[in-house]
Specification:
This protein has 345 residues and is an alpha+beta fold. It has two domains: 2-93, no CATH class; 113-342, Bira Bifunctional Protein, Domain 2 (BirA Bifunctional Protein, domain 2), CATH 3.30.930.10. The protein has twelve helices and nine strands. It has helices at residues 2-21, 26-37, 42-48, 58-93, 113-128, 141-144, 178-186, 226-240, 296-302, 318-326, 333-336, 339-342, and strands spanning 131-132, 138-140, 170-172, 191-200, 211-221, 247-254, 257-266, 285-294, 310-317. β6 (247-254) and β7 (257-266) form a beta hairpin. α1 (2-21) runs parallel beside α4. The termini are far apart. It binds 3,4-dihydroxyphenylalanine (DAH). 3,4-dihydroxyphenylalanine binds at residues 175, 177, 216, 254, 257, 290-292, 313-315.
Length: 345
């Protein structure tokens, strides 16, 4: 009895091998699984005989039955893998998918155009010899206005332009010129510093956002002249745009510089050739930054010897620089984070 059971268990494996030879579909495989391992399957049938065995023989036959059951399962798993591979091969043979198609590209991120300009401008000025500083975005009236020689009644102090914190003692800096004062308070001349950063003004329309970016520059030494200012800023502009870009210095006014100038560059879109150019309005020139020789009044605030030192300062709006460099016509695009816009840079 025992021998008979053991033999029929052994032969189950061979039977299964034979049965699976012709199976070609997942359904066929499932049917075979029921036939061999199902509740009423061949294995169960054989195991029914276990009850009739002598008690001493049962463990041996039981162990064998378990071993065979595991083997059968392995045979089924292997057959399943073989079937899957067949399905793939058939699909490829039928051209269901084209393995020569290129893969889907991984979408690459971009550095925001403003960050690009921020880095380009900062690095260019560092190459010229400036050292980068940063200052606080929350300021007092003294650093934002008074020490920069901006008198009490100056419109820049108007509540409409400046974001004041409750209590009116603190404000969000309206320009990066504040960093000039911090650096001069903490360092002796000579100074060659730039301060890139965020500034805030209560202003919002097509050409203004309440937050924008500037780079402030300050160069102080003995015998620094307006010629140095022109040389440094011309070099800077030609590095950022190209060597053919023309510059002109137009007299202007800032409380902290005297004389003051506005730097214009030749129109990067039409080179002054188009009478109806939408960007330069046919003038051939684009306003790009403010600059000038540091007013001795500022030196008095920071206790620099105005007889010994002279210097120049400049302030660049980074949004404007980026718009001209990349040909962007709407300031708001920088802050909308529209993927279709950002992807272009
Ligand atoms: N602080 C000025 C502004 O925000 C820009 C500026 C103009 C800075 C002339 C300067 C300068 O250092 O010399 O409008």
């Amino acid at each position: 009895m025992k021998e008979k059971l053991l033999t029929s268990l052994e032969s189950l494996q061979i039977e299964l091998h034979d049965a699976l030879k012709d199976v070609e579909s997942p359904q066929g495989l499932q049917e075979a699984r029921v036939l061999f391992l199902g509740k009423k399957g061949k294995l169960t049938q054989i195991l029914k005989g276990l009850g009739k065995l002598d008690a001493k023989d049962r463990p041996q036959v039981g162990a064998k039955a378990n071993e065979i059951k595991e083997n059968l399962e392995e045979i089924f798993d292997a057959a399943e893998l073989r079937l899957q591979a067949q399905v793939y091969e058939q699909a490829i043979a039928k051209d269901l998918f084209d393995i020569s198609l290129p893969g889907r590209p991984i979408v690459q991120g971009h550095v925001h155009p403003l960050t690009q300009i921020y880095e380009l401008a900062t690095q260019t000025l560092e190459k010229i010899g400036f050292q980068t500083y940063s200052g606080p975005e929350i300021e007092d009236d003294y650093h934002n206005f008074e020490a920069l020689n901006i008198p009490e009644d100056h419109p820049a102090r108007d509540l409409q332009d400046t974001f004041y914190l409750p209590g009116l003692k603190w404000l969000l800096r309206t320009h990066t010129s504040t960093v000039q004062i911090h650096v001069m308070e903490q360092n002796e001349a000579p100074i060659r510093m730039i301060a890139p950063g965020v500034v805030y003004r209560a202003d919002s329309d097509v050409t203004h956002t309440p937050m924008f970016h500037q780079i402030e520059g300050l160069w102080i030494d003995q015998k620094t002249t307006f010629a140095d200012l022109k040389g440094v800023l011309t070099l800077f502009i030609q590095e950022i745009f190209d060597q053919k870009t023309q510059v002109r210095f137009r007299p202007s006014y800032f409380p902290f510089t005297e004389p003051s100038a506005e730097l214009d560059i030749s129109c990067v879109f039409c080179q002054g050739k188009k009478k109806n150019c939408a960007i330069c309005k046919g003038t051939g020139w684009l306003e790009i930054l403010g600059c000038g020789m540091v007013d001795p009044a500022v030196f008095k605030y920071v206790k620099y010897d105005e007889e010994k030192y002279t210097g120049f300062a400049f302030g660049i709006g980074l949004e404007r620089l980026a718009m001209l460099k990349f040909g962007i016509n709407d300031l708001r695009l920088f802050f909308e984070n529209d993927y279709r816009f950002l992807e272009q840079f």
